[in-house]
Amino acid sequence: MSGTPELDDESAPSWIGKVRTRLERDLPYDKLLPETQPAYVASWIYVFGVGTLSALVMIIASGTVLAFEGPSWYHISNVGHFFNSLHYWSVQLFFLFMVVHLLGKFWMAAWRGNRARTWITGMVALIVSIGAALTGYVIQTNFDSQWISFEAKDGMNAVGIGAWFNVANLGQNLLVHVFLMPLILVVLVAVHLVLVRLRGVVPPIDAAEVEAAGGAVHSSAPSETTEVR
Amino acid sequence: MLLWQDEAVSTASYLPWGWLSISVPNLIVILVMIALFVLALVVPFPKERRTPRKHS
């Protein structure tokens, strides 16, 4: 896509200006928030990415309530049990949707079409999510978390990071779980989503010729687009 | 110990299969994920409802 003369990178005097002109050129609003998608997106296999994202929103919302109320609430009261379960089952759905999303993208080789960074940020997000899940399991303050943390401690020692990352240290794991991991994950997911918008939703392998012909995300042909509702 | 507490801390059943040993809950989750993946490929997506757009 060729930029207009006033959006030329060289004309920007500072790095902020360079970033702005680059974003204006590569991510205009109609590309960032498109109303239409290619026809091939109308398939259930394309639903699991947004399913994962929805589960993450529920995880953060329920986790925020748990953080404010604390274990003396969520271990004892009925409402606390509800939010504790909501957090737990949102995590189960998050991983379930994410694995199906991963299977779908792996088998359609979703790194095609200059989408390697989209694929890599997704994979790193999966690894960070596993770390978030582990630290979540060990901060439950119940028998389950005691068992898991002392099993995991052996694992951490076996790979040589036990002295630095001690899963039996409740304070360390609490902070990692409620601050560090969500921060990294949200940034990764944000970058992942922007890259999806930047490169477009990956087409099925047999639709490669459509993409090569420029008929992917922003095609205006009615036969190749469907309304997003 | 109360019955529900006893159940809450009891371990899951494991299925030994040679060198592989997997708990029943984990096996169920893996099978559900595979089933969802297959269903997502074969179940038809709902058709688009074409509603006329209102232009103000």
Description:
The complex is a heterodimer of chains A (229) and B (56). Chain A is an all-alpha fold. Among the domains of chain A are: 40-108; 123-200, no CATH class. Helices cover 64% and strands 3% of the residues of chain A. Chain A is built from nine helices and two strands, in the order H-H-E-H-H-H-H-H-H-H-E. In chain A, strands 1-2 form a two-stranded antiparallel ribbon. Chain A is globular. In chain B, strands 1-2 form a two-stranded antiparallel ribbon. Chain B has a domain at 3-41. With 56 residues, chain B is α+β, with helices and mostly antiparallel strands. The A-B interface holds A 42-45, 47-48, 92, 96, 99-100, 103-104, 143-144, 226-227, 229 and B 8-9, 29, 32-33, 36-37, 39-41, 43, 45, 48-50.
Report the uncertain regions of chain B: none
Arithmetic mean pLDDT of chain B: 81
Calculate Rg of chain B over CA atoms. 22 Å
Structural class of chain A: mainly alpha
This entry's quaternary arrangement is: heterodimer
Unreliable residue stretches of chain A = 1-5, 216-229
Please provide the count of β strands of chain A.
2
Number of helices of chain B: 2
In angstroms, what separates the terminal alpha carbons of chain A?
Answer: 28 Å
Residues in helices of chain A, as a percent range = 55-70%
N-to-C span of chain B: 68 Å
What keywords describe this structure?
heterodimer, A: 229 residues, mainly alpha, 9 helices, 2 strands, globular, disordered N terminus, B: 56 residues, alpha+beta, elongated
Give the structure's gist in a few sentences.
By secondary structure, chain A is an all-alpha fold. Chain A has helices at residues 15-26, 29-32, 48-69, 71-74, 78-107, 116-138, 143-158, 170-199, 208-212, and strands at residues 36-38, 225-227.
